[in-house]
Design a protein that fits this description.
Layout (H helix, E strand, L loop, with lengths): L4 H17 L2 H15 L10 H10 L2 H8 L10 H12 L6 E11 L18 E8 L2 E4 L3 E2 L7 E8 L9 H5 L5 E8 L5 E9 L11 E9 L8 E12 L8 H36 L11 E3 L5 E3 L16 H9 L2 E2 L17 H7 L1 E2 L1 H14 L3 E8 L5 E8 L5 E4 L6 E4 L21 E6 L4 E4 L19 E3 L2 H8 L20 H22 L8 H20 L5 H11 L4 E10 L4 H9 L2 H7 L4 E13 L5 E12 L3
Parallel strand pairs: 12-13
Antiparallel strand pairs: 1-5, 1-9, 2-3, 2-4, 2-6, 6-7, 8-9, 10-11, 14-15, 14-18, 15-16, 16-17, 18-19, 19-20, 21-23, 22-23
Family: Belongs to the CEP76 family.
Subcellular location: Cytoplasm, Cytoskeleton, Microtubule organizing center, Centrosome, Centriole
Protein name: Centrosomal protein of 76 kDa
Length: 646
C-alpha cells in the first residue's frame, strides 16, 4: 500500500512522537552499549547491523514497540519491515563513531514573554532549529514561539575521517569542526527571521564520564543585537559507542586554547599586511580614497572577516545542472536588507552561507557570494564585484571571464546576464561606442576565494573599466599567500564550515495542485461578492501549463521556446467569435491570499477575474518549480474566454 507524500510524512511524525514518549532512543542506546561491551572480548570482530537487530529482538524492544503501535501480529511481520523500523528509530551504524545531540528544551526567550499559548488549530509564529556538522545538515520540527519553547529533538551526527571507520579520542580531539546552530523564526505570514547563529564546540564530551554530558547554551542575537542574549537551549551530547578511555579536561582546553592562539596570530598578521597594502593603494592616486574597496565584512554575529572567506568552491552535485540554473536558483532566494532598529540608513551584515540558506533570504552580498561559489564549482573564472548602482547605492554582483577575454556580468538577484564592452575614452567623438545595458555605475574591487583586486584605474566607472586582472597598472592585487592563510578551508578554526545544499523536500505536483485549488476558491469568492457566476474550463486550464513551463525554461536558460505550440492550442480551444485573455505572473512564495491580492492590483488581471459577458469561461493554472533548499518559482496564469458582442 502506498501513501501520498503528505500523508506519509504525517504518519512518520505520529510514529516519531509516539516513540519519543516510549523513550525508545534510551532503550536502544542501552542495547547498543551492552552489545558493544560484549563484543570487546579477545576474539573481537566488527559489530554488524544484523547483530544489533538480533540484540534488539532478544531484549523484546521490537515486540514492545509493535504492541505500543498496535501491530498485533508481530511474529508475522516481514523482517524487512522490522529492519526498516529499527533503522528509522536508531539510524546508528555500529561500525562508526556517532555523536547523539539532543536539544532538551528552550528557556529565557524573553521577546516572547507575553506571548499567549496558541489555541488548537490556531496559526502562530514558530521556531525551527537547523544544524550543520561536517557536511551533514538537520532541521527540527517547527514549534510555537514562546518564552520556553518546546524545542525537543534528537540529531545523530556521524563523526568520521576519510578512510577511518571508528574515530578514537585523539583523532576526534583534532576535529575542530563546530556544530553550527541556526535558529529561525517563521511568522504567521510565512516570513522568516534569523534569531541566532551559534557555533558549538562539541569536544567537551571527550572528557565526560560515560561519554555523556549536558549543559546550557546561551544563544546571542544577530546584527546590531549580537551582544544581546536571545535565549537558552539545554543540550545533551553523547558518543556512540562510548570511549573506552576518556581524555582529561585539561588536554581539551589546552587544544582549544592553542587553536584560538593560532587563529588569532594568523588574523593579526593578515591585518598588519592589509593595512600596509591599503596605504600603498592610496599612494597610487588620491581618488582611490573614494573607491568602494571592501577588504573586511561583518557577519551576523558581528565578527569581522576578510570578504574572500565568504566565497568557497561549492559543488551542487546533481541538484543543479548548469551555471545558468545556479543563477536561477540564487535569484529565487528573496532579497531583504538587514533589519535596522530606528533610523540611520543601511545596517551592513553579510551572512554565513548556512544562515542565508536556512533563512531563505538575504542582501545582495549574500546572493552574490553564493552565486560566485556555485559558478566556481562549475569551473568558471568567477568573481564578486563590489560597487554601486544608480544614485550611488552600494551593490554586489558577479563577474565571469571567458577564455577569449569576454566579460559577463551576472545579476544575482534576477539571474540576468550582461555582456561588458568597455567604452574607449580616447576614441574620436563620432566613433561608435557600445551602449551599456547593465545597471551598474562604479566598481571598486573584485574578489573570489583566493584573489582580491582593487580597481586603480583613473575612473571607477564600470563602462570605462578594463577587466584585465594581470595588468598591475589597472588592478592592485593582494598576496594570494596572505589570503590563503586566513581564507583557505581549514586555515583557521574561526572560519565557518561550508554546508552542502539540501535537496528539495516539496512535491512540486502536490504544491501546484494545492495552490491552484486555493486560487480557484479565491476567484469564485471574489466573483460571488460581485454577483457574478463562475464557470471553470478545465481543458483551457490544462493548456496553460505549457506556457508556464516555457516561461520558467526561459528564465533558466535565456532561450524562449514552446510559445508556438501554446498559441496553436489556444486557437483550437477558443471558438470563432470568442475572445481569449491571459495574464501570467511570477512569485517566490506559496501564500495564496498574498498572491491573489497582488494579482488584483494589476488592471489586466482584474479585468480577467471580474470578466462580464456572454458565455464567460474562466481558467487558472499554477506551476510550482522546486529548486534546492525548497526555493520555489511559482507561476500563476489567469485566463478567460467569452463571446464577443458588438
Amino acid at each position: 500500500m502506498s501513501l501520498p507524500p503528505e500523508k506519509a510524512s504525517e504518519l512518520k511524525q505520529i510514529i516519531h512522537n509516539h516513540l519519543l514518549k516510549m523513550d525508545i532512543h534510551g532503550k536502544i542506546r542501552e542495547v547498543l552499549a551492552e552489545t558493544v561491551r560484549d563484543d570487546q572480548g579477545p576474539a573481537r570482530r566488527s559489530l554488524s547491523e544484523a547483530d544489533f537487530l538480533r540484540a534488539l529482538q532478544r531484549r523484546g524492544i521490537i515486540d514492545d514497540m509493535m504492541k505500543d503501535l498496535h501491530f498485533t501480529q508481530v511474529a508475522h511481520l516481514p523482517s524487512v519491515w522490522i529492519k526498516h523500523i529499527c533503522n528509522t528509530v536508531s539510524n546508528i551504524d555500529p561500525s562508526r563513531r556517532c555523536l547523539y545531540l539532543q536539544v532538551l528544551g528552550g528557556k529565557a526567550f524573553l521577546e516572547h514573554l507575553q506571548e499567549p499559548d496558541p489555541l488548537p488549530g490556531q496559526v502562530c509564529s514558530t521556531f525551527t532549529l537547523y544544524l550543520h556538522f561536517r557536511n551533514q545538515r538537520f532541521r527540527s520540527k517547527p514549534v510555537p514561539c514562546a518564552c520556553e519553547p518546546d524545542l525537543k529533538e534528537g540529531f545523530l551526527l556521524e563523526i568520521h575521517r576519510d578512510g577511518i571507520g571508528m574515530a578514537d579520542a585523539t583523532s576526534m580531539l583534532s576535529m575542530c569542526d563546530p556544530v553550527h546552530f541556526v535558529l529561525i523564526k517563521t511568522d504567521t505570514s510565512s516570513e522568516t527571521m534569523l534569531v541566532s547563529s551559534y557555533f558549538l564546540d562539541w569536544r567537551t564530551v571527550l572528557s565526560s564520564p560515560s561519554s555523556k554530558t549536558c549543559f546550557a547554551v546561551e544563544l546571542m542575537g544577530v546584527g546590531s543585537e549580537s551582544k544581546v542574549p536571545a535565549g537558552v537551549l539545554t543540550v545533551s551530547l553523547e558518543l556512540y559507542p562510548p570511549l573506552p578511555e576518556i581524555l582529561s579536561a585539561d588536554i581539551i582546553s589546552t587544544q582549544q586554547s592553542l587553536e584560538r592562539q593560532r587563529a588569532a596570530e594568523k588574523e593579526r598578521l593578515f591585518l598588519v599586511y592589509a593595512k600596509q597594502w591599503w596605504r600603498e593603494f592610496l599612494e597610487i592616486r588620491p581618488s582611490n580614497q573614494t573607491k568602494l574597496v571592501k577588504i573586511f565584512a561583518q557577519d551576523e554575529n558581528g565578527v569581522n572577516r576578510p570578504v574572500c572567506s565568504y566565497v568557497r568552491v561549492l559543488r551542487a552535485g546533481r541538484l543543479l545542472e548548469s551555471p545558468r540554473q545556479a543563477a536561477r536558483f540564487v535569484s529565487l532566494l528573496a532579497h531583504e536588507k538587514a533589519p535596522v532598529v530606528g533610523g540611520g540608513g543601511k545596517q551592513e551584515q553579510w551572512c554565513t552561507l548556512m544562515a542565508f540558506l536556512c533563512r531563505g533570504k538575504g542582501d545582495c552580498e549574500d546572493h552574490a557570494t553564493l552565486l560566485c561559489s556555485l559558478q566556481l564549482g562549475f569551473g568558471m573564472d568567477a568573481y564578486v564585484c563590489v560597487g554601486t548602482k544608480a544614485k550611488g547605492v552600494p551593490h554586489a554582483w558577479v563577474l565571469t571571464r571567458g577564455t577569449d577575454g569576454s566579460i559577463t556580468f551576472w545579476e544575482s538577484l534576477t539571474a540576468h546576464r550582461y555582456l561588458h564592452r568597455p567604452i574607449d575614452p580616447d576614441a574620436p567623438p563620432l566613433a561608435p561606442q557600445p551602449k551599456p545595458s547593465y545597471p551598474y555605475r562604479t566598481v571598486g574591487c573584485v574578489f573570489n576565494h583566493q584573489t582580491f583586486l582593487a580597481n586603480c584605474q583613473p575612473s571607477d566607472a564600470v563602462e570605462l573599466c578594463v577587466f584585465d586582472f594581470q595588468n598591475q597598472s589597472r588592478w592592485k592585487a593582494m598576496s594570494e599567500e596572505a589570503l590563503k592563510s586566513v581564507c583557505a578551508p581549514g586555515s583557521t578554526t574561526s572560519l565557518p564550515p561550508l554546508p552542502p545544499l539540501c535537496s528539495p523536500s516539496l512535491d512540486p505536483a502536490a504544491a501546484s495542485n494545492q495552490l491552484e485549488l486555493e486560487m480557484r476558491y479565491l476567484v469564485s469568492e471574489h466573483r460571488k461578492d460581485l454577483d457574478l457566476a463562475t464557470v471553470w474550463d478545465d481543458h483551457l486550464s490544462y493548456l496553460l501549463s505549457s506556457a508556464l513551463s516555457a516561461y520558467e525554461l526561459e528564465r533558466c536558460t535565456g532561450v524562449s521556446c514552446g510559445n508556438e505550440e501554446f498559441q496553436d492550442a489556444v486557437r483550437r480551444a477558443v471558438p470563432d467569435g470568442h475572445t481569449f485573455k491571459g495574464f501570467p505572473i511570477h512569485f517566490l512564495h506559496r501564500n495564496a491570499r498574498r498572491a491573489f491580492a497582488t494579482c488584483l492590483r494589476s488592471p489586466f488581471c482584474e479585468e480577467i477575474v471580474c470578466c462580464r459577458g456572454d458565455h464567460v469561461r474562466l481558467a487558472v493554472r499554477v506551476r510550482v518549480f522546486v529548486y534546492p533548499e525548497n526555493a520555489c518559482a511559482v507561476w500563476i496564469m489567469f485566463a478567460c474566454k467569452y463571446r464577443s458582442v458588438l
